Every structure is written in structure tokens, then in C-alpha cells.
Amino acid sequence: MLHVRAVCPAEHTAEVVELLREHPGAAHLVLHRGAAVSPEGDLVEADVAREAADEIVDGLCGLGLDRTGGITLEALDTAVSDAADAAEEAAPGEAADAVVWQELLGRTGEESRVNATFLGFLAIACLLAAVGVLTDSPVTVVGAMVVGPEFGPLAAIAVGLVLHRGDLVRRAGLALLVGFPVAMAVTLAGVLAGSAAGIFDPGTIDGNHDVDFVYQVGPASFVVALLAGAAGMLAMTSAKSAALVGVFISVTTVPAAGYVVVAAVAGRWDRAGFSLLQLVVNLAGIVLAAAIVLIVRWRRQRSAPLLRPLSRG
What we know:
This protein has two domains: 2-98, Alpha-Beta Plaits, CATH 3.30.70.120; 105-300. It is an alpha+beta fold. The protein is built from 13 helices and four strands. The chain crosses the membrane at residues 114-135, 141-162, 174-193, 213-235, 242-266, 272-296. This is DUF389 domain-containing protein. It comes from Amycolatopsis panacis. Keywords: Membrane, Transmembrane, Transmembrane helix.
């Protein structure tokens, strides 16, 4: 279940309470008169079945609470209550299949921002990939896949395209366009420093065949990217985040970026070019598959009113 908190002006409190009271997917309704300070108003709380959350949030937005107050959602790990059980049984569908579109917009929007943490993880992932390539270590390359944070912006691009949110697409695109060059520049400095210190020899990549899959791009690369993108978006929309780890170690994005740098330093421009193509193919496949999954899920809920845009803040 999800916990919904709605800050609302006093003149809309009765409508909010009525909406939650009458919805069969809501339980544990609580009203705090005058509890909200900024913005000023009342605080209404309720626990709702995940499969009913999208309809309830849309109804609250229809009352203008996204503009005059505020709506927050919080996942509940456990709800021990007959009322909660009844709400989940009364809500249509299955919780695992329910998409809370406002939650998805908020989550992908947060993960698509360019910040020091995103750049740091991406740079570390590329450095790990480079070390894996130089040492012919598939395990290290897989570790780089797990560390890489690039799926967040890719998912955000897919969400933005499907829900016509140009601001989300631009923000996520900027994260990728800035993040990968910065990470590759840091990796280039690391490879050059390691080579100068005698720690690594970039020329050894000619004999490192255990990591050849990083630059060997082909139809299978696109198929894997499609499957990974579909699985990743299913995981995000169904709140099954554990499946995302499998997505991260399925696609050759960060390893390809790391291989580009190592191959360039070694003067193997053919491999650098194929690695760059591998990167592009995987990025495009993930976004395409993720968008298709969203379109299919959106059409299943096409009877719901169109989502209102979230705040650009």
C-alpha cells in the first residue's frame, strides 16, 4: 500500500475527505485541522491500495491540490489491518501491475538530474570498466555495469517521450550528454596516469579476449538492450526494484564508454569506433523498449484522465 498526505486549503478539505472516504481503495483516513503551516491549511492522510493510488492522486489534482497545496506518496512495507486488506481487495487489478504515473514522473525526474553524485558514480563506473578491460576481467566489467547510474536518465527520456514531457527529456538528455563525456575524460586521465606509472599497458587489449564482448556490436546487442529496457521499465512501474540489478548487468553502456577510452589510448581506433557504436545501440535500445512498455501500460489505463503536469521545480 501507499500512504497519501494531502495538504489542502480549508475550503477544499470537505471535498478531499469525501473523495477519500468514498473510494473503496482507501483506508485509515485521518484529518488534522489547521496542521499545515506552509502552505496554510489542513492535512489529510490515508493509506491507499497501490492499484487505486493513480485514480486517487488524479482526483486530488482535479481539486487543485497540486497547485494550492501538496500531495505526497510514501510506500508502506506492512499494513496490519482488516480495513487495509479490504481496501486492497476492493481496488481493481493487482498491486504489482498498477502504475502510479505521478510517482513515476517524480522518481524519474529526480534520477535524471546532473549533479555531483550522478557524475561521480558514472566516472567511477567508467574507471572500473577501463580497469576490467585492461586486466581482461569480466567480473570487474560487470561491477562497472552495476555501479553505473545511467538507467535513471534513460528511463526519464522514455517517460518524457510517452507523457509528452519535453522538460524531462531535455533534463535527462543533458545528464547523458554531460555525464558520459565527463566520465570518459576522467577515465582518460586515469588510463594515461596508470600507463605512465607502469601499472597498465593499454596495448595489452589486443590479447584480452575475455572482454571482447564490450566492443563486438551486432544484432544481439540491440536485442539485449531491448529486453533490458523492457525489464527495467517494468521494474520501475511495478515497484520491483530488485529486478533492476539484472538490468544493469545486461547492457553494455558504461563498459563500452570505458573501452572507447582504452582503445583510443592504445591507438586501436577500430575498436574505439565499435565500442562507441555499442554504446549508442544500447542506449537507443533501452529507451525504445522502455517507451514501448510505457505505451502499453498507458493504454491499459487509457480510461483515466490525462495526467496534469508536475511542478517544474
